[in-house]
Amino acid sequence: MSVDDSLETSAEHVHTATPPLLVQTAALSTRAIRGFFRQPQLWIPGIVFPLLLAAVNSSSLSRASLIPGFPPDTSYLQFLVVSVIVQGVMFGAIASGNELTTDIQNGFFERLLSAPVSRPAILFGRIAGGWVFAAFQALLFVGILWPFGGTVRGGIPGVAVLVVMAVFLATAIGGLAAGLGARTGEPEAVQGFFPLVFIFLFMSSAFFPTALMSGWYGTIAENNPLTWMIDGARYQVIVGFDLTEAAKALGISGVLALLGLWFATTQVRRRWRVAA
Amino acid sequence: MTVDVAQRADTAGDRVDHHRPRPWSIVWRLTARSWLNLVRIPAATIPMVIMPLFFTVAFAGAFSALVLIPGYPTDNILSWMGPFAALQGAAFTGLGASFALGRDIEGGFYDRLLLSPASRLSIAGANVFFVLFRTVIPVAIVLLIGAIGGMDIPAGILAAVMLLLGAWGVAAIAALWGMGVTYRIQKQSAGGLVQVGVFIAMFLSIGMMPVDLMQGWLPHVAKYNPMTYIMELARQGFIGEVAWESTWPGLVSIACGVTFFAIFAWRMFQRVTP
Amino acid sequence: MTRAAVQPIEAEALVRCFDEIRAVDGIDIVVDKGEIFGFLGPNGAGKSTAVRVLTTLLKPTSGTARVAGYDVESQADKVREVIGVALQDAAIDPLMTGKELLRLQATLHGIPRRLAARRAKDLLERVGLTEAAPRLVGQYSGGMRRRLDLALALMNEPDVLFLDEPTTGLDPMSRRNLWEEVRRLNREYGTTVFLTTQYLEEADQLANRIAIIDHGKIVREGDPAALKKSVGSPTLRVDVADEQQAIAEQTLQAFGEERPSRVGRVSIGLEGGAERMADVVRALDEAGIVIEHMELDSPSLDDVFADATGRRLEGAADAEEPAE
Hints:
The complex is a heterotrimer.
Chain A: H1 2-15, H2 21-37, H3 40-43, H4 45-60, H5 76-106, H6 108-114, H7 119-145, H8 155-184, H9 187-202, H10 215-222, H11 225-238, H12 243-275
Chain B: H1 2-11, H2 23-40, H3 42-62, H4 77-107, H5 109-114, H6 120-149, H7 157-185, H8 190-203, H9 218-222, H10 226-239, H11 244-272
Chain C: H1 2-5, E1 9-18, E2 21-31, E3 36-40, H2 47-54, E4 62-67, E5 70-71, H3 76-82, E6 83-86, H4 98-108, H5 113-126, H6 142-154, E7 160-164, H7 172-189, E8 192-197, H8 200-206, E9 209-214, E10 217-222, H9 224-230, E11 235-239, H10 245-252, E12 258-259, E13 265-269, H11 277-286, E14 293-297, H12 301-309, H13 314-320
């Protein structure tokens, strides 16, 4: 209801020549966030699975921290803090980006297209909806893992880096999901793509230090941009706040975010060209 | 008029007698159908091959340094992670049965089966039979990667036999659990719940680490998880010789799991067919 | 031989509930051998539930039902041997070919391979799918699927054939083809057919006898001609301007009982039929009513339905099927 209202209001703004992009984006992202949280099956996995894996792996692999070459003075749970955030954001952003596919399937997308809504607002509204959840996830995970030994040594600036990285990553993955959705129009196709993202994550330093991986697998992991991003963010957790490392984490996630947005924009453009 | 009709019906030469269908031919025919369904959806076939491949490579690759932990049962990470990946692939295969079942129920095709005089046991059993058949694939893939990647197999052929046995156990249990839930919910969306159940059981066991080397809460859970013993049975020939004391707890776990979930699935099945 | 003496379908006080809802609410049915029995009712009336109980897919909550003399509850296996069923929406696996489905159906009924092959060939020919048989069912049209469904239902030469809304969603051409096939089956093989439908025409065209079901209860039963006759007089429909509707109703009351109708139209059962038309026109004219449209119809099954339930079936079915 209120979304429709705000859409109409913004439509009037068009006539009065006020740039409505921000207003529209805000209205659409409010709708996106509300719709997302109203469907627990979309956001619960993004919270439960990463925590479950952290609980199991930290207990199972705790002795790994004794292996020479593992970051000194670091528990395996501390090592995992960043991976939990990255995993959670991947789950959540795929689900929220995929909502665009659902919009396409049930015709809401076309309704927006036929309304005087600025077209980038349709896309940005969707993706911006994922930011709130990503930031929430990052804070929640840090808050839950801290008392169990997942201390973030970088303190508040360190946590801030993790939150911003989560938001950038949500943009990247959400853009990828939305773009794939715009391309295929099938939510299942987007879901089916998720394992590929997971493979990328696995072939990085997310679960183990790359220095301890051998052979070609280690080489791939060391040259995986996700590794650079994760290592930069992890530095804030296991050592302390550091500007260079933070720049690494945010720089890479920022570039990924831009790539995601670019992909989503081209795919959505293609679809509404087809629609027109 | 009516009499005439009755006579016609009874004397018609080519009339099909109402034979009692033979259970095995039904199981066989339904298995063949499942196989055709599988290969006719390439999207479903690819994960079946990729999954065990990826898990073997990824676990062995990412966690290769685990063998450096003092007391780790093997110094060949492929020998440890390969069987784990095979059992995961087997579990996925089992889940596939419940997805296919959900599709049949939702699409109404299952009604066609239930409307026939075929024995209910053969209709339900065909699902499990197909799973056992299909489980051979992830096991074979893991063994193939192992052969290429230099996996140790001290027990030789017996190791492979034990792995297949364990994989069958896991697949059958996962399939029966999945079928039970799917009969109960009667929708494809049952798959989510089914999956969560299976993977929790897998992860709360000795997939990555033997119980003695775990710390914290997990060893207390893993010790009582039947999956731990099935995994031990399946893996033993890759990290040492096959021994009875590593075998019987797994056999008991499989027997109990299969019995328990078969009763569960059968109970739920009876809700679908009076 | 003894089975020849029993009724193909007998149901007594049959009830099936889903939680609180009584989907089938105490129905009695007797279907005679060689009959095409039509079960007519709107969507959600309980037709499909009744079929599912009779075909052993659902247990009755209470009451009894026998098909070919076998109890649907205690002798379900026997029932399944002698029935053929084509369910709503022709639930056919799209990833199988027509041929594979027939072979599977034969196995499910334990029909020996050689006989099965011969029957499959005959059936495919009969429903006109011989050429399409090696193709995946997913590529079939709606009409082809229904015909294949029919062939599958006939694989075991059933004594009783159940057709649950066999033509819903079909184009008129395919619908007529299917009707013709059902008639032929009944005529040439004496197959007893139990047919559910929401289409008046279908019931009228095919059934020797129909039962009208509404809210789980049978509200009328008999052969179509007798049922139509029982409604009595033909229906006179007069369209008038809205503001004249009240006077029109008053005037027409003198000629017969009012019947359910839409706004802007007055319907009555015209006593005495066409002979009284002149009188009607005169009376309306004298009352100063402007007639926009006028028609006289002999009773239809829809009138029977309206008489029994106070509602029309025709509009309801059309609303479901805009294509029709």
